[in-house]
């Protein structure tokens, strides 16, 4: 990903007002809150702001009036022709433009290429508003939404049958219930996480950010949240209908995604822990490419959890209905690749194995470098947008002093939320100093206080999934941080500053994205969208 210059980075106060106009109008569109639900007074507030801002047409939202090169320039709005977008046909209620199943079926199957992002051409793009399903209601507030989702919002029962014995999801009357089970933890995520916590420092704030590959309905991430660990979950849009949609309806971070042929849209050294619970990813295939990609996004000292096949194959090959020789070879390859990556196995019991990544380049004295392909040192490990995944090992960052332990630079959460991130203190982000970081923090605390006066219930649990379209250093998310909400911090690929690594060092989560394309999510999955400087950034794009 090449972070390109932003000629319009001198932002004015008028940009902040986009939170009110664009943020709230987009909120109604994505949430589908045009229908009264009766779930809380947030709906009446929303409808009143809708009336005041006239989201349907917005006749006075003229770009040139705010961005004219001449001071005092005016535009006659009476000559501007307004356009109202009509609703799309009902068949598009769950349309995901860049993960369209009809288009995917025509694409190559190798390495899950057909499940990756493939966006429509200009001629294929829709210019209509995605409708909500019949009977759609406002989601339950957090924490109730973790366990219950209105049936009308995601009316798909297939998982209740397919995963019935695994305790994923149950249908009760007009709601879906999520008991907290999973394929590898049918007795519940809490007991499963307790087992992991006997090895991984989950409870003390050392582990804050987690990556769940092949997440199902994201119960692992949902139950980690009450332990102050935030998980970025992903799964493809495949035959497990609506799994990511259910996750987001529950108020749990998730995107549509897959380990395929292109790199994950996250920076290097982002996650404190990565997890696979029977995720069906061929970890030993492609010369270890998928494990190497997990290694890239795992911070030094981070943990990788593998739960399910082939772990404990000796006792399970018959119940898994797979040849024991095949499973044995699969685990052998995983063990060999882990050694190449300098991962130390810390635990194996039952069907769970846990490895820990080395702390620095000196953590692997016994590795035969002649047998390992290292990524080119000239390649930026954070340059990932539509970049091909490679079977190479990302080098550790260079230590400033001998025996430096990179992992220990991060404070435990919540201290790390407002501490100086290592990428800032080291000067790794061009144009960002300790001074500008502190000033940015101070500014966004002020703005968020103003937002709370406009929306007093912003941290009441009513707004669970929040997106920041142009997150910068993550200071908006840090200022609004609450156990009842989370923020998807988006760093646009055309930004002149690659700050997503800083955001993860603060104990927040986010993703790279180009806003010229559709986001990797289902319709109606965010409760609030925050937009700051996004029109300036994409001017003339």
TrEMBL record:
<feature type="transmembrane region" description="Helical">
    <location>
        <begin position="12"/>
        <end position="34"/>
    </location>
</feature>
<keyword id="KW-0489">Methyltransferase</keyword>
<dbReference type="GO" id="GO:0032259">
    <property type="term" value="P:methylation"/>
</dbReference>
<keyword id="KW-0812">Transmembrane</keyword>
<dbReference type="GO" id="GO:0005768">
    <property type="term" value="C:endosome"/>
</dbReference>
<dbReference type="Pfam" id="PF03141">
    <property type="entry name" value="Methyltransf_29"/>
</dbReference>
<keyword id="KW-0808">Transferase</keyword>
<dbReference type="GO" id="GO:0005802">
    <property type="term" value="C:trans-Golgi network"/>
</dbReference>
<dbReference type="InterPro" id="IPR029063">
    <property type="entry name" value="SAM-dependent_MTases_sf"/>
</dbReference>
<keyword id="KW-0735">Signal-anchor</keyword>
<dbReference type="InterPro" id="IPR004159">
    <property type="entry name" value="Put_SAM_MeTrfase"/>
</dbReference>
<dbReference type="GO" id="GO:0000139">
    <property type="term" value="C:Golgi membrane"/>
</dbReference>
<dbReference type="GO" id="GO:0008168">
    <property type="term" value="F:methyltransferase activity"/>
</dbReference>
<protein>
    <recommendedName>
        <fullName>Methyltransferase</fullName>
        <ecNumber>2.1.1.-</ecNumber>
    </recommendedName>
</protein>
<keyword id="KW-0333">Golgi apparatus</keyword>
<keyword id="KW-1133">Transmembrane helix</keyword>
<keyword id="KW-0472">Membrane</keyword>
<comment type="similarity">
    <text>Belongs to the methyltransferase superfamily.</text>
</comment>
<keyword id="KW-0325">Glycoprotein</keyword>
């Amino acid at each position: 990903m090449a972070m390109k210059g932003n000629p319009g980075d001198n932002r004015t106060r008028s940009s902040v007002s986009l939170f009110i106009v664009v943020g709230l109008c987009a909120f109604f569109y994505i949430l589908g809150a045009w229908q009264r639900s009766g779930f809380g007074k947030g709906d009446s507030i929303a409808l009143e702001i809708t009336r005041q801002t006239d989201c349907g047409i917005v006749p006075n939202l003229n770009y040139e009036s705010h961005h004219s090169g001449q001071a005092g320039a005016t535009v006659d709005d009476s000559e501007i022709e307004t356009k109202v977008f009509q609703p799309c046909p009902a068949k598009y209620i769950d349309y995901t433009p860049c993960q369209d199943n009809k288009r995917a079926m025509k694409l190559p199957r190798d390495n899950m290429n057909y499940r990756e992002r493939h966006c429509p051409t200009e001629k294929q793009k829709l210019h209509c508003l995605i409708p909500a399903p019949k009977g759609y209601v406002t989601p339950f507030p957090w924490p109730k939404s973790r366990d219950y989702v209105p049936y009308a919002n995601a009316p798909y029962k297939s998982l209740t049958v397919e995963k019935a014995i695994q305790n994923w999801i149950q249908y009760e009357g007009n709601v879906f219930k999520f008991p907290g089970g999973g394929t590898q933890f049918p007795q519940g995520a809490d007991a499963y996480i307790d087992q992991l916590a006997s090895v991984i420092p989950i409870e003390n704030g050392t582990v804050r950010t987690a990556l769940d590959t092949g997440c199902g309905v994201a119960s692992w991430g949902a139950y980690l949240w009450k332990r102050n660990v935030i998980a970025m979950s992903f799964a493809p849009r495949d035959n497990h209908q609506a799994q990511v949609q259910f996750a987001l309806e529950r108020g749990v971070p998730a995107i549509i995604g897959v380990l395929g042929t292109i790199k994950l849209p996250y920076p290097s050294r982002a996650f404190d822990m990565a997890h696979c619970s029977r995720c069906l990813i061929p970890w030993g295939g492609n010369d270890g490419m998928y494990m190497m990609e997990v290694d890239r996004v795992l911070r030094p000292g981070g943990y990788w959890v593998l739960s399910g096949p082939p772990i404990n194959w000796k006792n399970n090959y018959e119940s898994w209905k797979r040849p024991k020789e095949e499973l044995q070879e699969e685990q052998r390859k995983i063990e060999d690749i882990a050694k190449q990556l300098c991962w130390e196995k810390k635990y194996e019991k039952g069907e769970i194995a846990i490895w820990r990544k080395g702390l620095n380049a000196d953590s692997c004295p016994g590795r035969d470098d002649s047998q390992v392909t290292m990524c080119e040192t000239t390649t930026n490990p954070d340059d990932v947008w539509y970049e091909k995944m490679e079977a190479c090992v990302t080098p550790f960052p260079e230590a400033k002093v001998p025996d430096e332990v990179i992992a220990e630079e991060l404070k435990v959460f919540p201290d790390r939320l407002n501490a100086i991130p290592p990428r800032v203190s080291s000067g790794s982000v061009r144009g960002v100093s300790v001074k500008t970081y502190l000033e940015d923090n101070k500014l966004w605390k002020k703005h968020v206080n103003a937002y709370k006066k406009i929306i007093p219930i912003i941290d009441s649990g009513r707004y669970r999934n929040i997106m920041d379209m142009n997150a910068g250093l993550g200071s908006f998310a840090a200022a609004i941080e609450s156990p009842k909400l989370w923020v998807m911090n988006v760093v646009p690929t055309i930004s002149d500053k690659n700050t997503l690594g800083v955001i993860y060092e603060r104990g927040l989560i986010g993703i790279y994205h180009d806003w010229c394309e559709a986001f990797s999510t289902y319709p109606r999955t965010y409760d609030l969208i925050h937009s700051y400087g996004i029109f300036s950034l994409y001017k003339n794009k």
